[in-house]
Design brief:
This protein is about 30% helix and about 30% strand. With about 625 residues, the protein is α+β, with helices and mostly antiparallel strands. The strands form 15 sheets. Strands 24-32-31-25 form a four-stranded antiparallel sheet. Strands 33, 34, 37 and 38 form a four-stranded antiparallel sheet that branches. It is extended. The N terminus is likely disordered.
Length: about 625
């Protein structure tokens, strides 16, 4: 036909009127030969071409009609999404799947069953992914990817499975719970140590759920009409069999062949084979992630630490923290000292290697120990100058009370507060006990002066309260005594007891704060050191208010003559006073605190004599 067309030409006659020329002789021959072809052959050529042309037209029309939409006839699971956009299909899938996910699936393993809700394992439909897969039908590559998929869709044979997902953590946890009830775990081969001998405990197969298959089948069950799923237990092999444990057995037997000698310089210590056996632990290599593993026996650092460190406690030295030394208002840093101790980790590794190799003498390996607070740490704390100091005095005659005051301030000395930290007296000092050196001394309890273990603590509490008062730092908690005590600063006393009132203040600066203390037989001094914040502290003591006379109670005493009165306990008037502290910085007020002290009245006790006076002897009349 092409040859025939090539011989067809257009010509123009002398009058310029277009006309069609006749085919030349060669073209006429081609046409004659084509016409001479058998009728069936001619249809065999034209019919496929016609079908292809018709199919192309239909495919083109279908492509135009489904532009931007899923091909008609496509389904996602049981949800028809043909003719929808991807967004519409995703919504339809969500709505269509929701009823299926709302019904539980009954899982049966062995002779036990569990209702499984979708929420229990985090089942969710990937509607957007499913809609995207549906949209891709008829838009693939090649004849089958375009024509074949569209033909299948026309005849309702094109579908996309629902894309369901589950929460891996919830799914794994669920099957772990099921396995714990129905499975029989495989048993790894193990090495058993008894005294100085070791033997191999064989492995054993178990029965368990195939987690991967179980996950796939459980998700599929949520999209099926049947809500029943039965899983069979599958044989499970141990990770460590006898062959994988044999080397560990031989290694352990060599470790237990005899005692071990540890040396350091001129000293030596002997460890028995039984003690070595207590040090040996086992682990698998790799620990997880593979179906098989090898058993490894080794000396544990924990076992070495528990036995060797107490044995060689005189070897090396203890690390010493950097500290601060305060004197006459100045503060300096005492440098830290590194320590030296046995390196239990390296020693355990070396012992494992050498004992397996047959060596029974090992030299201790030492390592440098850095303290918790180094000199560099101390320098960075910003403790450079004294912020405030306060001193109170007391009687040196009450020796138990003096002892308690000294014990308290010694425990308080050197306390460090980080920026933003709140100091608690009770948390810092702890309970006052005889084991810590505290003695019984008088203290006010419920308004009465009674002997108490640790009596004298309020002397220290009042001192540190006044130190903080004049530093300008915030006071978080403070309580006054139940009764007014005249030798404490007016309205600025503080009472503290274990399990009761506490004293607390906050370091609101950007640097650390140091509490430093000092004492004599009759005075106690507490100072705060840090970086000066430029606080200007002033205060005003108000007048006494709410004066309450003390009650008087008389007690008859038959051992005293009638009319004699002796004051046994002097009364104290009840009263209230407020001390106002103002803290300024750069002339601006940054804090105003009112410290109110309410003192209760204490009754006065008077003993009154009731013993009659002796009668005078009578003189006879002469």
């Amino acid at each position: 036909m092409k040859e025939l067309e090539e011989h067809m030409t257009n010509t123009t006659d002398v009058n310029d009127t277009p006309r069609r020329t006749r085919p030349d002789a060669k073209a006429s021959g081609l046409i004659a030969r084509f016409r001479a072809l058998d009728f069936k052959i001619r249809w065999g050529v034209f019919l496929p071409v016609a079908v292809l042309l018709l199919l192309g037209v239909l495919i083109g029309a279908d492509a135009l009609l489904s532009a931007g939409r899923i091909h008609p006839g496509v389904r996602v699971g049981s949800v028809a999404v043909g003719g929808m956009t991807q967004a519409q299909a995703a919504t339809a899938i969500e709505l269509g799947v929701s009823p299926m996910l709302s019904e539980p699936v009954t899982l049966t393993v062995s002779d036990r069953s569990w209702p499984v809700e979708a929420e229990m394992i985090g089942v969710a439909v990937e509607s957007s992914t499913s809609a995207e897969a549906a949209y891709a039908i008829g838009r693939g590559e090649g004849f089958n990817g375009v024509v074949g998929d569209r033909l299948r869709a026309w005849f309702g044979a094109a579908s996309v499975p629902l894309a369901l997902t589950a929460d891996d953590v919830l799914m794994s946890g669920f099957f772990a719970d099921v396995s714990a009830l129905v499975a029989r775990p495989a048993t790894d081969a193990a090495v058993i140590i008894e005294g100085t001998s070791a033997h191999l405990e064989p492995s054993a197969e178990g029965l368990d759920i195939d987690l991967e298959q179980g996950r796939i089948k459980l998700l599929s069950a949520f999209t099926s009409d049947s809500r029943e799923l039965t899983l069979e237990l599958e044989p499970s092999k141990p990770r460590i069999d006898e062959a994988a444990a044999e080397q560990a057995l031989q290694d352990v037997r060599r470790m237990l062949e005899g005692p071990l000698t540890l040396t350091y310089e001129e000293k030596s210590w002997e460890v028995s084979a039984e003690e070595i056996g207590d040090w040996i632990t086992f682990h698998s290599e790799p620990a997880t992630g593979t179906p098989t593993a090898t058993l490894v026996g080794a000396i544990s650092a924990e076992g070495v630490s528990a036995t060797v460190l107490p044995m060689v406690e005189n070897v090396g030295k203890v690390a010493t923290d950097a500290s601060f030394k305060a004197s006459s208002g100045a503060v300096s840093i005492v440098p830290h000292q590194d320590g030296l101790t046995v390196d239990a980790v390296d020693l355990a590794t070396e012992l494992t290697t050498k004992l397996i190799a047959g060596e029974r003498t090992v030299e201790l390996k030492m390592r440098r120990v850095e303290p918790e607070i180094t000199t560099e740490d101390a320098e960075a704390m910003g403790i450079k100058e004294r912020l405030s100091t306060f001193t109170t005095d007391y009687s040196a005659s009450n020796l138990p009370r003096v002892n308690n005051i000294h014990t308290l301030v010694d425990a308080l000395d050197g306390t460090l507060l980080a920026p933003g930290e709140t100091f608690s007296f009770n948390e810092t000092i702890g309970e006052r006990t005889a084991e810590k050196g505290y003695q019984e001394a008088n203290a006010i309890v419920n308004g009465k002066l009674v002997p108490q273990l640790g009596g004298g603590i309020c002397q220290v509490g009042t001192t540190i309260f006044n130190t903080v008062f004049f530093s300008g730092l915030p006071v978080v908690e403070r309580y006054n005594h139940s009764q007014y005590i005249s030798h404490y600063p007016l309205g600025r006393d503080a009472t503290i007891s274990w399990g009761g009132p506490d004293f607390r203040f906050k370091n609101d600066t950007d640097d650390w704060v140091l509490i430093a203390t000092g004492h004599t037989n009759s005075t106690v001094t507490i100072s705060l050191y840090g970086t000066d914040q430029g606080y200007d502290v002033s205060y005003k003591t108000g007048d006494w208010t709410d004066i309450k006379p003390y009650p008087v109670r008389e007690i008859e005493d038959a051992t005293m003559p009638v009319g004699m009165k002796v004051v046994e306990e002097r009364g104290v008037t009840g009263r209230t006073i407020v001390v106002t502290r103002t803290v300024k910085k750069g002339g601006a007020v940054i804090r105003t605190d009112g410290f109110k002290s309410v003192y209760r009245a204490a009754e006065e006790v008077i003993r009154v004599g009731t013993m009659p006076a002796p009668s005078e002897p009578t003189t006879p009349t002469p």
